[in-house]
Design a protein that fits this description.
Blueprint lengths: L2 H24 L4 E5 L3 E2 L3 E4 L2 E6 L1 H13 L2 E4 L5 H9 L5 E5 L3 H4 L2 E18 L16 E5 L6 H10 L1 E5 L2 H9 L5 E5 H11 L5 E18 L7 H15 L3 H16 L8
Parallel strand pairs: 1-5, 1-6, 8-9, 8-10
Antiparallel strand pairs: 2-3, 3-4, 6-11, 7-10, 7-11
């Protein structure tokens, strides 16, 4: 075999090896992974029957989206909330199933509009130890608690950085425990996950909420910019489905159903509505 024939044979072999890989790379992603805050009932929490899976209203909504688009989306537990965000930012996980939108997060994520639910963040205090509160300025001069890498909306986040004394801890359980031990005067945390956590800890009668909420932010589906599945076609399909779902009653129905499910899992009879 002369040199020309040998070169052609090697080239043909390389083409045959690489063609399947090129074809696979061009195929649309049909199987994605999602994660979120695992301490977030009724939106998300770890499945007692399968702790590596997250269940809740956000996961159920993703099931509807996936079915409509012919996708498979696994909602998985990858660790506490800060770790979950790292996994999505890196592209090792494709989606966040429920994310507040901020300028910083937009650097790493593509947010799918519109939001599918709105979630109020509130001021939690010890029962009977509230203080005069009408707005953000009334939190100044007090020690507060919040979660690492958590957001309560861009406007409140900016105000808190400039004017408030907030200590960030890894979990909501830890934040509530520090509050009850009087190491903080208040905790900023979402209303419904806070109610669920207070019940889990058996502390419902020791905690109370001050009104009004500090914010009520939209929960978005967010796609990692480093995900290999992040393509314009997929973003457009997701946005179309989210717009249709958010216009109906399904998100609120799923929230109610999952509050009931979570309560029953804790040994309760379910909630009346």
């Amino acid at each position: 075999m002369n040199g020309r024939c040998l070169y052609q044979s090697v080239l043909l072999a390389l083409v045959l090896v690489l063609l399947p890989k090129v074809a696979a790379a061009e195929e649309p992603c049909r199987h994605l992974t999602a994660t979120g805050n695992p301490e977030y009932p009724p939106y998300l929490w770890r499945d007692p029957q399968d702790p590596q899976r997250l269940i809740g209203a956000n996961a159920d909504l993703l099931k509807h989206v996936a079915k409509d688009l012919g996708l498979v989306i696994d909602v998985v537990y990858v660790g506490p909330w800060p770790r979950a965000q790292e996994e999505v930012n890196s592209g090792r996980v494709d989606l966040v199933a429920g994310y507040f939108r901020t300028q910083e997060r937009e650097l790493a994520m593509d947010f799918i509009s519109p939001p599918f639910l709105f979630n109020p963040s509130v001021v939690w205090v010890r029962q009977g130890e509230g203080f005069a509160y009408r707005g953000w300025a009334d939190l100044q001069g007090r020690r507060g608690g919040t979660l690492v890498n958590n957001s309560h909306g861009q406007a409140f986040d900016d105000y808190a950085r400039a004017h408030l004394n907030l200590e960030a801890v890894p979990s909501a359980t830890q934040a509530f425990e520090k509050l009850l031990l009087k190491r903080n005067d208040y905790v900023i945390f979402e209303r419904y996950p806070g109610l669920a956590l207070a019940h889990t800890l058996g502390k419902e009668k020791q905690l109370q909420v001050l009104e009004p909420p500090v914010s009520s932010e939209g929960l978005y589906l967010a796609l990692s910019r480093k995900s290999r599945c992040n393509k314009p076609e997929l973003r457009a399909q997701l946005a179309q489905r989210m717009e249709a779902l958010a216009a109906g009653r399904l998100p609120e129905q799923l929230l109610t159903q999952n509050f009931d499910l979570w309560h029953r899992q804790q040994g309760g009879p379910g909630l009346d509505h």
